[in-house]
């Protein structure tokens, strides 16, 4: 009886093993199926990469506009608290900006636009806009002055993302020195 049971167990094990091998061969993937799956994965990866690059580009533009606005607001605060004229000087070709006092001494470190972001001509027909900086005061010195009572030299600064052509505009109101940011040409 023990021998018969052992023989039956071996036969069942052998039959199960053979059936599993046959089924595993039948359940495999064909080359065409693998190529289709790889093509789908590649497509999703490409779309994800492109949208990530666009997102980063937008983030750089917005961040550059916010950083420049912070510098402009800091110059206004300095002018009011120290009761002196301060100005934000912009070097468009170098993509840099900084705060100076009336004696042209740098007060704070130099800020720089993020990669791919430039001061650009918005082509709105305004005088002096070629470098992306439009000053409505008497000077055309690529600087915006802030005065002890809170007023400021009025104007607009145009930032452009070279990769996708998006714009941000910063405007300065002369009577209050308020700095506003717009996510388009304004």
Describe the structure.
This protein is of the alpha+beta class and 186 residues long. The protein has one domain (33-182): minor pseudopilin epsh domain (minor pseudopilin epsh fold). Helices cover 41% and strands 22% of the residues. The protein has two helices and nine strands; from the N terminus they run ααβββββββββ. The strands form two sheets. Strands 4, 5, 7, 8 and 9 form a five-stranded antiparallel β-sheet that branches. Strands 3-2-1-6 form a four-stranded antiparallel β-sheet, covered by helices on one side. The protein is elongated.
Query: How many angstroms does the end-to-end distance come to?
Result: 96 Å
Q: Structural class of the helices, strands and pairings?
A: alpha+beta
Compute the CA-based radius of gyration: 33 Å
Instruction: Please report which band the strand proportion falls in: under 5%, 5-15%, 15-25%, 25-35%, 35-45% or over 45%.
Output: 15-25%
Main β-sheet description: 5 strands, antiparallel
State the name of the first-level CATH class: Alpha Beta
Number of helices: 2
Order of helices and strands: HHEEEEEEEEE
CATH names the topology as: minor pseudopilin epsh fold
Walk me through the topology.
Layout: H1 2-26, H2 31-82, E1 86-91, E2 96-101, E3 111-112, E4 117-119, E5 133-135, E6 143-146, E7 155-161, E8 167-172, E9 179-182
Antiparallel strand pairs: 1-2, 1-6, 2-3, 4-7, 5-7, 7-8, 8-9
């Amino acid at each position: 009886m023990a021998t018969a049971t052992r023989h039956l167990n071996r036969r069942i094990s052998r039959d199960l093993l053979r059936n599993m091998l046959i089924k595993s061969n039948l359940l495999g993937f064909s080359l065409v199926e693998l190529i289709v799956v790889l093509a789908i994965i590649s497509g999703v990866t490409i779309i994800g990469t492109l949208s990530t690059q666009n997102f980063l580009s937008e983030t750089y533009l917005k961040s550059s506009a916010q950083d420049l606005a912070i510098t402009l607001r800091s110059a206004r605060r300095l002018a009011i608290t120290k009761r002196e004229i301060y100005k934000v000087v912009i070097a468009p070709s170098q993509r840099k900006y900084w705060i100076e006092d009336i004696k042209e001494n740098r007060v704070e470190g130099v800020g720089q636009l993020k990669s791919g972001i430039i001061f650009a001509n918005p082509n709105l027909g305004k005088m002096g806009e070629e470098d992306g900086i439009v000053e409505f005061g008497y000077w055309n010195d690529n600087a915006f002055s802030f005065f002890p009572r809170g007023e400021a030299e009025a104007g607009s600064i145009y930032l452009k993302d070279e990769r996708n052509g998006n714009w941000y505009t910063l405007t300065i109101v002369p009577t209050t020195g308020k700095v506003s940011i717009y996510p388009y040409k304004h």
